[in-house]
Structures are given as structure tokens and as C-alpha cells.
Write a structure and sequence with these properties.
heterodimer, A: 762 residues, alpha+beta, Aldehyde Oxidoreductase, domain 3, Aldehyde Oxidoreductase, domain 4, seven-stranded mixed beta sheet, five-stranded mixed beta sheet, 17 helices, 27 strands, 25% helix, B: 340 residues, Uridine Diphospho-n-acetylenolpyruvylglucosamine Reductase, domain 2, Uridine Diphospho-n-acetylenolpyruvylglucosamine Reductase, domain 3, Enolase-like, domain 1, 3 domains, five-stranded antiparallel beta sheet, 14 strands, 36% helix, 21% strand, globular
Chain lengths: 762, 340
């Protein structure tokens, strides 16, 4: 479809303020007479706080107040389960609130005239600790007799899912080919540009107000109100510019502590704004990470390539607290059998408490982990069957008619086949007259051996090249029985024509361009020029709940809300209301939980689809892997703003390339070894794929606004398995774990050659 | 973390040396707080923030223009000090001022022509922002085993000029760094220059760093090599230096000796690469294991030697056909310079 505003790369509404430096991120905000807060982190992975002596800190120069667990009215929080103390220590209002369960647990808050004074006073706080046994291995933590980190969760299992469909054992017995694998996926840190920061104060209406970067203002407000034990309407949350999120701001960081401090100070008659900024090291230990997972898989197929059975078991390291482990694991549960129709499925997934930094939301939730196993299995099956990997996928891929292992077809407009064909053709695959797909011959793709960054001579530089393919899918929205909803309000002003449309939406623009996309949908629906739409966003005092910037949901959900509000406003406009107001809450199609024993149900209302091809060069003497070409075809339904869609594809691929090749989060006995950006390395501009082609596929979603479906996470999903497949194609060694750092590849090659102790350079 | 310190900003070298001089020498009572020189600050500032460094007084030398720049001198004032590597260079010295930034190495024609290894190290040094601030002298003064400029300077037989109020001394780079973050610089001394003899035209050098990523990465290992040979591949001089595989950047002397006076065949290069790997004494750390470092040092050494031998032989046959005399070589160097 062709529209006036939707489908056009309109300039971002937030760009002028950001490029001129006018936009303030939370760390940039200052107010007169402002105080500063510093946070004392536990620094111990599992220990009970026996006593805290804050007297010296309270008496230190410039210190205004010191707060501990006893100052928190309801000392618990957690988006999905309130299992984490706001502050760990004695006098906690909740049993178990005196125990720190990971290094980033928080113990005390110091408020002082300057940041330096606040931080200096932290060192004067005397904490008496009793170290407790460490729970570090999720498999061991599930065994009888293991130390229980949360008394209400037997065997340390945070949550689990199970799918039973058909008869897996019988089908695997009858299958012509069965492939197995044990896959390990690593932790990943979000590394958003802007570390956690915020300012809290009591606003003119007497509300405890926090200006902070998050992903969901209304959820932040709810969690603050719960911990402070005050009504939500006495709390206000505002998001200024947000310096990235990627799921890492889904859970609370400084929101509750800042609110607590401003509120307690006001009770003492001190009405001064309080600011805090976490250092990068505090950010890295202080917020959750992508779950490390171990996935066991056994898949079977007939000789003709028809998938008949998949058996998968997953154990995820949930870390110290639940955070969104249930949502993450739900996505792993649905994606660990891939985007394929498989009649016999058995899936068991578990998230397990440990003393690691909590597993949390991160672009794709558990989808990247599920896809690494599922697409790894498909690559192995293709090889075992002698069938081209693209052809094998096309043969089994989900369509509008085929059911998921949860029992029902996915909602209409399934664009998987189109994305697979688009990516494969762009990479050089061809289909013959008999319908068979053929991988491009190596000769079609040769690049120079020299690397501008590393001037290794061409001679004797054994570079092996390979081509890999993978595809994926993921739900849009949280769902699993949660009634997804989003609210928007539009006010139209003018005489005969709309001169200004003010859009109120609480959705967080975390850098993805949400506010621009919403303005485009408003303009399209109103038939008004894009430039006349003014976006007012992310303030709980003036707007209702739009839901989270998460799960690829905001364009879909917020877009439907804006479209509804605009349509309503137009009716009022025609009735000559001035201003003409539209106020609309969009409710997504209903979903259900999945049955705890069988997994049957309708967990989601919409999905997004992706397929990718990647060409790598592997230096077999050093193990270094270079991505020379990357192709990502994404079914986005309808690109509201194509430039922003390409930005999301490129950003998702680059972030996942870091996950696949580079990012290596290390801990030792629960302590984080890589708490700096000099030790936790993410890709630089020189490390990203040399060529990156984004292909937009547009199979409309039946319920999405103007056919749009969510897409922010999908480009991330198949990257790691596609890269692993390409490395296998290049060197003939399978890597079922990653990141594929040079040393890991080098070791794998030597182990495969049986010459780990061989000559220095052969 | 915020740290308080006093900042001195000398306007002349003599003023700087006076500030560095022991308090007693300056007629002051207390000599307990040595002055820490700071140029680009790309090591000092992070060290201050992390609490690894607690100087009470910093002295910013970045305003001393006299320390900046790269020049060539055929006759050093006061003559050549004893103990310099001999040989057939005859082409004078290249002198890198103590305040010269890494970025300058990338644009300087003398470095481009005579010290490819140093230029290549500069190209992969941290990131462009750091390269604009960090100095060669600071990189050496920091004495990290992973200092990127150290292996190239080792193969170039470079020396460090240490200047204090009481005079100047030269220390070979190899002797300058004595341990992890330890040098022979005395508190009263400032690094005022780094110099190395202009390598003969029939030589070539190269550097390669294996990092976990392509920029802004501390090396897992690094190797620099320099070979001087004639058109037949007869090696007159060989230098091999390794980074990040010992407490300091080191020379692989056994590997060098294996090449010296021999015809540089692939088999000989392979043998030298093995000796270089044996010279490495790496440790396991976050960036890589000892065994990986040791093996890949061999790989990189072989590759670099192969490349530089090829280059040096080409230059030899292009200009001389046979081994050059110093006069011929000086001429060749200049004509090459004109061409470039």
C-alpha cells in the first residue's frame, strides 16, 4: 500500500534537539540547590548483612543523610515477582531482606552536597558481613540438597515451561536422521551509551517525581509506589532523552532509590532535588544481563527433509532475582524448535536462581538463545540429509496454515517464506527447474586476502571462507495471557483545517525512533502534514499507560492506539469540537497462558520474521573471524519509517555480531571481572560487517497499524547461528558455543585436528 | 572517582626540569612528593580515577612545543654516544620529540619512509581520539608489556633521552623498561626524545598486533620485525621484538641470531618463528591464554618475516643488485624519498 506519511523516511522528531545538544539525558539534568546520591553496592555475591554502621558516613563533610534497608517501607520489588530487596540489610520490612544475593545488590544510599562527598562517605560505612555459600552452577542448583536462594522457589527454579505435542520418542525412533547437540550461549551486557542516572524531587503537586531513563514510565511508577507504600498518583515518572535501553532498563535501577531518598528527605523538611549517576562499572554490575543458557537438543527428520520431531531441554542461569526470567524463558520455549512445523515436540525449559548478576530482558528476550540451538540443529540436519540449508528451511517453515507446537497456527500474514527467499537470493542462492535450491559456488564470491587493519601479507595467509544461513521469528508483545494494551490521546487545534495535532503518548523513545513513528501514524490517520504533529511523551502526570518499549511491541501497540485516538479525534473535529480530542486505549487480540504440563494455548497475537545470510573469513592460524558480508531480510509488515527500520536492522545485526564473535562477560566466584569497557569489549566501527544489506519484506500483519508488525528484535535473532554456520562452512568445525573469539576458534580447530600440542606454526 | 592534585604548567623545558628537580635541590624543605609528568594523560587520568596513581603534583608538559615533532639529524651535537648499534646505517638518526603524539607518527614522512613498523603500530594504537593525545614518550613511560610502540622501537634499536637539570643520558628502549610499569627513569628526569638510527634502504620493518577487536584493544600479543638483507636474501641484520608476552616488551635474540648472516629461506624463517615463540613467556589473563599467545607469536613472526624479507630483497635488487655501500645507500634513500 502507498500512504501519504507512513512508509516514508520522515526526519526524526527528536533529531534537532539531540544533534544540537539541547536534549537532556538524565545525567545532564541539573537543578538549583541539588543534592547528590551515591549507592553502596554489596560487592559480595552472597552474604548476609549482620550490621551496618553509618555514623561516620553521616558525620562526613557535606553528607545530608544516609539511608539503609530500615528506611524502605516495603523492602521488595520486581517487575514479575517482588523477590529483590530495594536495600539489603538489617531492619528490613521483609524477611530475607538482609541478604545480598549478587555483587550488584544495594546496601546503603548516601546523600551529600556534592557527588565527591557522597562517594567519599560510602567508604566510611562499616558493614559487617556473613558470607553465605555460593550458588553458581544452575544445573547443580536444581539438585536436591542445593542451597536455596529463595525459600518459596524449590530447587532454585524461578520458572519453567513444558510443551508436549505428539509422540517424540516414537517419532525419533522412526526418523531417518537424528541430530543432537548441546549448545551453550553466553551472558551479554547491554552497554547502552548512557549509564543509569536520574533526578528526583517533590513536584509542585506534591508528587514524588523521578526523571530517569527507562522503558515503561507507568511500570516504574507502580514499582516506586509499591516500595514506598504510597498510592501511584503520588508518584510521577518522566523520561527525558534516553541513551539506549535494549531491555536493560526494563527493571529498576535508580528509580526506587532516588524516589525513596527525595521522599524521606522531604519528610525531614529537606525539599531539594537529588541526582545520581552510576559509573560504568556500577552500571555493568548493577543491571541485569542476557541469560546464559545451556540447551540440549535431539531433532529427527525423514530422508526427504520433513522434520518429524524435536526434543529440547533448556536450563537458563536466572541469576539472583527473577526480573523478567519468565518472559525470557517463554520466548526461549517458543523459539527453541525454530520457525518450523514439527508434529512431535517435547520442550522443557527452566530458569534457575544463582548468585550471578540477574538474567534480564535483552533484545530478543530468550529468542537468540533458542534460535542458536534450533538453527544449529537445522544446519546439522541439512548436512546429514544432504539437502541445501535454504531448501530444508523452506520445506518446513511455518505458514499461515501450520500450527505451532503450542497447538494453533500463528496469527495471519506469516512472511517467513518470503524473507528466506529474499535473503537467499540476495546471497546468490538459485532455484533450479525442479524447485531445488543451490548454494552459490565459492567462486562467485572472492574478496582480497589483505586486511587493511592488519597488514598481513597475502602470501601464506590461510584464510578460509564460508557462507551461513539462518532464519527466525519472535512474538510481538508480552502476552502469554497478559492483555496487551496501549493508550494514546490526540488534541486537534485549528479552524477549518488542522493547524496543530498534539499527540500524548507515554511510550519510551529509547533511540529507536518511536516518537517519530507515532507522529507519522497520527499524520497518516488525520490526513494532516507530518510537521503539524507535536509529540508530548513519557510523563505519567499527563498521560496514560502506553506499555513498555519492549518485545518489539511499541510500533504495533502504540501505533494502534495512536491510530484509534486519531480516528476518534477526527470524529470530534467533524463535530466541530475545538480542541477536538481523541482518547483511545487499544487492546490487542486476546492470548492465553500456555498449559503448564502440555504447553498448549495461544500465547501471542502477532509475530515478526527474519532470514539472514552471512559470509565470513576465518584465519585458521590465529582463529580470527571476519564478517565480510551480511544480508538481513526482515518482514516488518509495513515499514512506517524505512530509514528507521534499516537503522534497527543494522543496529540489531551489529549488536548480535558482538554477541556472536566478541562479547565475553567473565565472572569468577560471582564477581564480575569485566566491569569496564576496556575489558568488556563491544564491536567498534571497524569490527562490524564490511557489507551489510538490509532487505525490507512487507507481508502485512492483519492487525498491525497500516499492516506494520514489530521488528526491533528480529534482526538480532539468527545472527549467532548464521555466523556459526558460516564458520563451519569455512573450516569444517562445529562450534556449539560462542562468542567465537579468535582463541575459541583456534582451540576448536586444533582440537579437531587432534594436534592441540602440535607444532608452533604449520 | 574525583582526585585532587596540584597541576604545574611549565612554559619552558628548563622550567619543567626545575619543577621536576628534587625539592632539596630547589631549596625547598620537603621532598616527599615527586612530581608526575603528564602529556596526553591517556594513561595517567584513568590511573588517577582508578586509584592506581596518587600523585600530589602533576606537571603538564603538553605546552612545551620544543618537545614536539620528528626530525632527522645526521650529526648529533656532541657526537654519537658510545655503545650505539654499529653497522652500515650511516644515515644519521631520526629523533622523535618527547611530546610527539601517536597521531603524528601516522602523518610524518620520515616515519612512513624509514619506520614502517612504528607507523603500523600507530595505526592500530587505541583509537583516533587517544592517538591525538597520547605521546610516544608516554607510551614508553607507562611501561605496559602491551605498549604498542615498544616492539617497533626495539627493532629500530631506539633509545630514550632522559633529561634532568644535571644533564642528559640515553637509555636503550630495552634497558629503559625493567618490569611491568617500571622504568629506569628517575623522578627528576623527563623523557625529552626518542631516537633511532635511520635503517638502511635495504631493510624493511613491520608490526602486527593481535587484539580482541580491531580498534581500542589492548594487544593479546604483538610482534615487530626488522630485516636488512641483500638481493639474494642474505641477512645482514635481523630484529624481532614481542609485546604482551613477558613482563616487558622483549627482543627474541635467539631468533634474531638464527637469521643473522644466513640466506633467508622459508625454512629458516620458520625456524626463527619457532625460536621467537620459545622466547615468549606469556601468562593467562582476560585477553588470552599463555598457550594461544605463544603459538600465535610464532605464526605472526613467520608472516611478518616473510613479508619484510620480500620487501627488503626487492629494494635491494631495485637499487643495488648487490649489497650497497653506505654512499650508494644514502643516495638511494634520498631518491626513494623524492619518489614518495
Amino acid at each position: 500500500m502507498t500512504y501519504q506519511t507512513v512508509g516514508r523516511s520522515k526526519p526524526r522528531v527528536d533529531a534537532p534537539a539531540k544533534v544540537t545538544g539541547k536534549a537532556l539525558y538524565p545525567g545532564d539534568i541539573t537543578y538549583p540547590d541539588m543534592l547528590h546520591m551515591a549507592t553502596l553496592f554489596a560487592g559480595r555475591p552472597h552474604a548476609r548483612v549482620l550490621a551496618i554502621d553509618t555514623a561516620a558516613a553521616a558525620a562526613a563533610p557535606g553528607v545530608v543523610a544516609v539511608f539503609t534497608a530500615k528506611d524502605v517501607p516495603v523492602n521488595e520489588y520486581g517487575m514479575q515477582r517482588p523477590d529483590r530487596p530495594v536495600l539489603c540489610g538489617p531492619g528490613s520490612a521483609k524477611a530475607g531482606g538482609d541478604v545480598a544475593r549478587f555483587v550488584g545488590d544495594q546496601v546503603a544510599l548516601v546523600v551529600a552536597e556534592t557527588e565527591a562527598q557522597a562517594r567519599a562517605a560510602l567508604k566510611l560505612i562499616k558493614v559487617e558481613w556473613e558470607d553465605l555459600p555460593l550458588v553458581l552452577d544452575p544445573e547443580a542448583a536444581m539438585q536436591p540438597g542445593a542451597y536455596q536462594l529463595h525459600p518459596d522457589c524449590p530447587d532454585n527454579v524461578t520458572c519453567s515451561y513444558h510443551i508436549r505435542s505428539g509422540d517424540v520418542e516414537a517419532a525419533l525412533t522412526e526418523a531417518d536422521v537424528v541430530v543432537e547437540g548441546v549448545y551453550l550461549t553466553p551472558v551479554q551486557e547491554h552497554v547502552y551509551l548512557q549509564p543509569e542516572a536520574g533526578v528526583a524531587y517533590i513536584d509542585a503537586a506534591g508528587r514524588v517525581t523521578v526523571e530517569v531513563a527507562g522503558q515503561w514510565v507507568h511500570e516504574d511508577r507502580k514499582e516506586i509506589a509499591h516500595a514506598l507504600d504510597i498510592p501511584v498518583d503520588q508518584v510521577r515518572v518522566i523520561y527525558p532523552a534516553i541513551g539506549g535501553a535494549f531491555g536493560g532498563r526494563e527493571d529498576m535501577s535508580v528509580q526506587i532509590t532516588l524516589a525513596l531518598v527525595a521522599w524521606r528527605l522531604a519528610q525531614r523538611g529537606i525539599r531539594r532535588p537529588v541526582k545520581t549517576i552510576w559509573s560504568r562499572a556500577e552500571s555493568i554490575i548493577g543491571h541485569g544481563k542476557r541469560h546464559a543458557m545451556k540447551l540440549w537438543a535431539r531433532w529427527g527428520a525423514r530422508q526427504d527433509g520433513t522434520l518429524v520431531a524435536a526434543e529440547v531441554k533448556v536450563i537458563a542461569d536466572g541469576g539472583a532475582y527473577c526480573y523478567t526470567s519468565n518472559k525470557v524463558l517463554g520466548n526461549t520455549t517458543l523459539t527453541c524448535t525454530g520457525p518450523y512445523y514439527i508434529p512431535n515436540v517435547s520442550v522443557d525449559t527452566y530458569a534457575v536462581y544463582t548468585n550471578h548478576v540477574p538474567g534480564a530482558a535483552f533484545r530478543g528476550f530468550g529468542g537468540p538463545q533458542g534460535h542458536f540451538e534450533a538453527e544449529g540443529q537445522m544446519d546439522k540436519l541439512a548436512e546429514a540429509l544432504g539437502i541445501d540449508p535454504v531448501e530444508l528451511r523452506l520445506k518446513n517453515v511455518l505458514t499461515d496454515a501450520t500450527p505451532l507446537p503450542t497447538g494453533q497456527p500463528i496469527p495471519g500474514g506469516v512472511g517467513l517464506t518470503q524473507t528466506i527467499i529474499a535473503a537467499a537470493q540476495a546471497a546468490g542462492w538459485t532455484q533450479d527447474a525442479d524447485g531445488h535450491w543451490h548454494k552459490p559456488a565459492d567462486g562467485k564470491w572472492q574478496m582480497a586476502n589483505d586486511d587493511t587493519q592488519y597488514p598481513i601479507p597475502n602470501t601464506q595467509c590461510p584464510i578460509k571462507r564460508g557462507l551461513g544461513f539462518a532464519c527466525g521469528f519472535k512474538n510481538v508483545g508480552f502476552s502469554f495471557g497478559y492483555q496487551e494494551n496501549s493508550h494514546a490521546r490526540i488534541e486537534l487545534r485549528g479552524g477549518t483545517e488542522i493547524e496543530e495535532a498534539t499527540l500524548y503518548i507515554a511510550g519510551a523513545d529509547v533511540g529507536q525512533g518511536h516518537h517519530t513513528a507515532m507522529a507519522q501514524i497520527a499524520a497518516e490517520t488525520l490526513g494532516a502534514p507530518f510537521e503539524r504533529v507535536k509529540v508530548v511523551a513519557s510523563d505519567t502526570a499527563t498521560m496514560q499507560n502506553a506499555g513498555s518499549a519492549s518485545a518489539s511491541r511499541l510500533t504495533y501497540m502504540g501505533g494502534n492506539a495512536v491510530r484509534g485516538a486519531a480516528a476518534q479525534a477526527l470524529v470530534a473535529w467533524r463535530n466541530e469540537d475545538r480542541p477536538a480530542v481523541g482518547d483511545f486505549k487499544y487492546l490487542a487480540p486476546k492470548t492465553t497462558t500456555i498449559d503448564h504440563e502440555t504447553g498448549q494455548g495461544r500465547p501471542n497475537f502477532a509475530y515478526g520474521y527474519v532470514a539472514q545470510a552471512v559470509r565470513v573469513a576465518v584465519d585458521i592460524e590465529t582463529g580470527q573471524v571476519r564478517i565480510e558480508q551480511f544480508i538481513s531480510a526482515d518482514d516488518v509488515g509495513q515499514a512506517v519509517n524505512p530509514q528507521q527500520v534499516v537503522g534497527q536492522i543494522e543496529g540489531g545485526v551489529v549488536q548480535a555480531v558482538g554477541y556472536a564473535l566478541l562479547e565475553d562477560f567473565r565472572t569468577d566466584q560471582g564477581k564480575v571481572l569485566t566491569d569496564k569497557l576496556s575489558t568488556y569489549l563491544i564491536p567498534t566501527v571497524l569490527d562490524i560487517p564490511e557489507q551489510l544489506a538490509s532487505i525490507i519484506v512487507d507481508v502485512p500483519d492483519p492487525n498491525g497499524p497500516y499492516g506494520a508488525r514489530g521488528m526491533g528484535e528480529m534482526p538480532y535473532l539468527p545472527v549467532a547461528p548464521a555466523v556459526a554456520a558460516a564458520v563451519y562452512d569455512a573450516v569444517g568445525v562445529r562450534f556449539d558455543d560462542f562468542p567465537l573469539t579468535a582463541e575459541r576458534v583456534w582451540r576448536g580447530l586444533r582440537e579437531a585436528a587432534g594436534s592441540a600440542a602440535g607444532p608452533v606454526s604449520e | 572517582m574525583q582526585v585532587e592534585f596540584e597541576l604545574l604548567m611549565p612554559k619552558t623545558l628548563s622550567e619543567a626540569l626545575t619543577m621536576l628537580a628534587p625539592a632539596a635541590e630547589r631549596g625547598l624543605a620537603d621532598s616527599s612528593t615527586p612530581v608526575m609528568p603528564i602529556a596526553g594523560g591517556t594513561n595517567v587520568i584513568p590511573d588517577l580515577r582508578d586509584g592506581r596513581l596518587r600523585p600530589a603534583v602533576l606537571m603538564d608538559v603538553s605546552a612545551l612545543d620544543v618537545l614536539r615533532g620528528i626530525r632527522r639529524e645526521n650529526d648529533l651535537p656532541g657526537g654519537l654516544p658510545g655503545g650505539l648499534p654499529g653497522g652500515r646505517h650511516g644515515g644519521g638518526f631520526i629523533i622523535i620529540g618527547g611530546g610527539t603524539t601517536i597521531a603524528t607518527l601516522l602523518t610524518d614522512p620520515l616515519i612512513a619512509q624509514h619506520a614502517a613498523a612504528l607507523r603500523q603500530a600507530a595505526a592500530v594504537f587505541a583509537n583516533p581520539l587517544v592517538r591525538n593525545r597520547a605521546t610516544v614518550a608516554g607510551n614508553l613511560a607507562d611501561a605496559s608489556p602491551a605498549a604498542d610502540t615498544a616492539p617497533p622501537l626495539l627493532v629500530l634499536d631506539a633509545e630514550v633521552e632522559l633529561t634532568s637539570r644535571s644533564g642528559t643520558r640515553w637509555a636503550p628502549v630495552e634497558a629503559f623498561m625493567v618490569g611491568v610499569r617500571k622504568t629506569v627513569r628517575r623522578p627528576a628526569e623527563l623523557i625529552t626524545a626518542i631516537r633511532f638510527p635511520v635503517p638502511p634502504a635495504n631493510s624493511a620493518s613491520a608490526f602486527h598486533k593481535v587484539g580482541l577487536r580491531k580498534a581500542d584493544a589492548i594487544s593479546v600479543l604483538s610482534v615487530a620485525v626488522l630485516v636488512e638483507c641483500d638481493a639474494d636474501g642474505l641477512c645482514h641484520k635481523a630484529r624481532i621484538a614481542l609485546g604482551s608476552v613477558a613482563p616487558t616488551p622483549i627482543r627474541a635474540r635467539a631468533a634474531e641470531d638464527r637469521l643473522q648472516g644466513q640466506v633467508l629461506t622459508p625454512a629458516l624463517i620458520e625456524a626463527a618463528a619457532r625460536l621467537a615463540a620459545e622466547a615468549a613467556r606469556p601468562i593467562d589473563d582476560l585477553r588470552g591464554s599463555a598457550v594461544y599467545r605463544q603459538r600465535v607469536v610464532g605464526v605472526v613472526t613467520r608472516r611478518l618475516l616473510t613479508a619484510v624479507v620480500d620487501q627488503a630483497r626487492k629494494v635491494s635488487s631495485q637499487f643495488f643488485g648487490e649489497s650497497p655501500t653506505p654512499e650508494e645507500q644514502s643516495h638511494a634513500t634520498q631518491s626513494h624519498h623524492t619518489q614518495s
